[in-house]
Write a structure and sequence with these properties.
The protein is an alpha+beta fold. The chain has 2 helices and 4 strands. The chain has a 4-stranded mixed sheet with strand order 2-1-3-4, with helices on one face. Residues 1-7 have low confidence and may be disordered. Bound molecules: FE2/S2 (inorganic) cluster.
């Protein structure tokens, strides 16, 4: 594949399209990756031992849905995000913010942060 076969318009330079591959914006504004990695014995992980990675992911999904944000925010279960010691870890795109040491009591704060991110994007 050569670059000259990839038509990229100046206005939408994020688009890369050819006969086999296409790229476009996702149908949501924020992707929220929640580490639910669980390791057995020894090495720390966001959903291992007493860490609530799984519960955080489930709660965030439910809260996004019940808040009417499901069309704008996608919560995604993730493997290790390489910040294990600081976990549980939540990573927000497109801005790249990382929340570490997340607990179930932080769900509302994260939702509020996401609301503000979406509001800024829509200005
Ligand atoms: S196990 Fe969650 S960041 Fe590594």
């Amino acid at each position: 594949m050569t670059n000259d076969k990839l038509p990229i318009t100046p206005k939408e330079d994020f688009l890369i399209t050819n006969s086999k591959l296409s790229s476009r914006r996702p149908p949501y504004q924020c992707a929220v990756l929640v580490c639910t990695n669980k390791r057995d014995q020894g090495r720390v992980s966001c959903a291992g031992e007493s860490r609530p990675g799984e519960e955080i992911c489930r709660e965030l999904k439910e809260k996004v849905k019940s808040s009417g944000l499901a069309q704008k925010i996608r919560v995604i279960r993730s493997g290790c995000l390489d910040m294990c010691d600081e976990g549980p870890t939540v990573l927000v795109y497109p801005n790249g913010n990382v929340f570490t040491g997340v607990g179930l009591g932080d769900i509302e704060t994260i939702i509020e942060f996401l609301r503000k991110q979406i509001s800024r994007q829509n200005q």
